[in-house]
Design a protein that fits this description.
The chain contains six helices and six strands. The chain is of the alpha+beta class. Strands 1-2-6-5-4-3 form a six-stranded antiparallel β-sheet. β1 and β2 form a beta hairpin. α2 crosses α6 and α4 crosses α6. The N terminus is likely disordered.
Length: 148
Amino acid sequence: MRASLLAAALFSCIQVVHAADGLVTIQSVNDVKTTADKLVAAVEGKDIKVFNRIDHAAGAKSVDMELAPTELVIFGSPKVGTPLMQCAPTMGIDLPLKALIWQDADGKVWLAYYDPAYLAERHGIEGCEEPLKKAAGAMKMFAAAATQ
């Protein structure tokens, strides 16, 4: 019970922002690297493939430019992605799923991803509620695991 109350208290302190463009943004209590590490662990823990992890700050540094810590994690599963692309082949432009983690000018760390419901609307998907529900639930779970 005590652990449940602590988890609820921590989650209630996390800021979640839903933008009109379908972007879900969640404040992390961790630094960028730890948030990305936790995201990768959560994704791989569900036997979902991580295709790539891109360190944008390292890319900027390679051309003598500065960028605050910023990483992109790209991941997905054909079990979820294929049915979505069967409903609308254009979903392939937004798959595999991805999450961006960055540090803002105030030192706060954020994780953002596109809401699968927004992607469904963007691609005119109808009648694919089950894979959309799975994708939305997974993204929410992964984001929570990474940011707490």
